[in-house]
Write a structure and sequence with these properties.
Elements (H helix, E strand, L loop, with lengths): L1 E3 L1 H7 L2 H16 L3 E2 L4 E3 L7 E9 L5 E9 L11 E8 L6 E6 H20 L6 E5 L3 H13 L4 E5 L3 H13 L5 E2 L3 H5 L4 E4 L18 E4 L12 H6 L2 E4 L2 H7 L1 H9 L11 H5 L13 E4 L4 H18 L3 E2 L4
Helix pairs in contact: 1-3, 1-11, 2-3, 2-11, 3-4, 3-11
Length: 327
């Protein structure tokens, strides 16, 4: 069995490869070439956290069989640990033998940003390159790199609640040859932008539709539960395309969509297209330059498993990781 640390995963999964792989994975999703049962959440009353099991199978060249195990323990912030912990177990699709264990945090980070990049490449205008990033955490960093994979960035602005973390982001960005302007408000960050990545943990809406320029594409990444959102209802209502990675997941957990539905800002018949459907041409994407488009990202187990299969294959070729006898 191969064991891959966070550093091993990052080495074996460059974003240029990740974007192509997530595009292929979502195409497979659009064609019905995946199997992804509902996630199982274990949360006994005595447990001060929750355990999430997310199995999946993907056919074809981008395929794999496995399960992601994710834990959310809020008390970890007082223990000096990350609140979210994760690993991905990759299985042999013929024998069921455990092939590899991968640190799941970096897998999640990179496949999330890569999927946003695939959506951006499809939905953003060809000349888009004025980027606003809302939030300054791990996903902000990976999204800056991912956006640069699919568009030539002319300008990057950043807003974050705390200045200290925003300045840390600026220093990191400079070390990767990106210049970033820190803005005092969300409105000043998104003013005139034609690409926006919202990657916060906010439970209250941050981005008002009145601030968004015609033709803008927005990736909404941070809100992943039904009671939290990053987008105001007027933005969701005015978007010409509001795409999701999975309708099943969105109707269960996407507060950015569910709260406007509950408010009556969206019709009860609202039927958002899935990214896979857009990629295979089953549903229409952007049809005019001045349309506002949104991609609501919740994350799918098929993305984790396809990423794990690709990472393991490259790690084996390059001798990355530790092999242990698990028998």
């Amino acid at each position: 069995m191969l064991v891959l640390t966070a550093a091993d995963v990052r080495r074996a999964f460059p974003l240029s490869d990740a974007v192509d792989l997530m595009r292929s994975t979502m195409v497979a999703h659009g064609r019905g070439e995946v199997f992804q049962p509902a996630r199982v959440v274990l949360q006994p009353p005595a447990l001060e956290g929750s355990v999430w099991l997310k199995p999946a199978s993907v056919q074809g060249d981008a395929g794999g069989l496995g399960v992601k195990v994710l834990t959310i323990f809020p008390g970890n912030q007082h223990r000096g640990l990350e609140v979210i912990q994760a690993f991905v177990a990759l299985l042999d699709p013929v024998t069921g033998v455990l092939l590899a264990l991968l640190e799941g945090g970096v897998v999640t980070e990179l496949r999330t940003a890569a999927t946003s990049a695939a959506a951006t490449d499809l939905l953003a205008t060809p000349g888009a390159g004025d980027l606003a990033i809302i939030g300054a955490g791990v996903q902000a960093r990976s999204h800056l790199l991912a956006m640069a994979e699919v568009r030539e960035l002319r300008r990057t602005r950043l807003w974050n609640r705390t200045e200290e973390r925003a300045l840390e982001f600026v220093r990191w960005a400079e070390s990767h040859d990106f210049g970033v302007e820190v803005c005092r408000t969300v409105q000043s960050a998104v003013d005139g932008a034609d690409l926006i990545c919202s990657v916060t943990s906010s439970t209250d809406p941050l981005i008002d539709g009145d601030w968004i320029s015609p033709g803008t594409h927005l990736n909404a990444v941070g809100a992943f539960h039904r009671d939290g959102r990053e987008l105001c209802s007027n933005l969701v209502r005015t978007a010409a395309v509001f795409a999701v990675d999975s309708r099943e997941g969105a109707f269960a957990n996407a507060g950015d969509m569910l709260i406007p539905l509950a408010e009556g800002a969206l019709a009860e018949s609202f039927d958002p297209p899935e990214l896979g459907e857009l990629l295979v041409g089953a549903r229409a994407g952007r049809t005019a330059k001045d349309q506002i488009t949104v991609f609501e990202s919740l994350g799918l187990a098929i993305q984790d498993v396809a990423a794990a299969a690709s990472i393991v294959a490259r790690a084996q070729r390059e001798g990355v990781g530790i092999v242990i006898d698990f028998s």
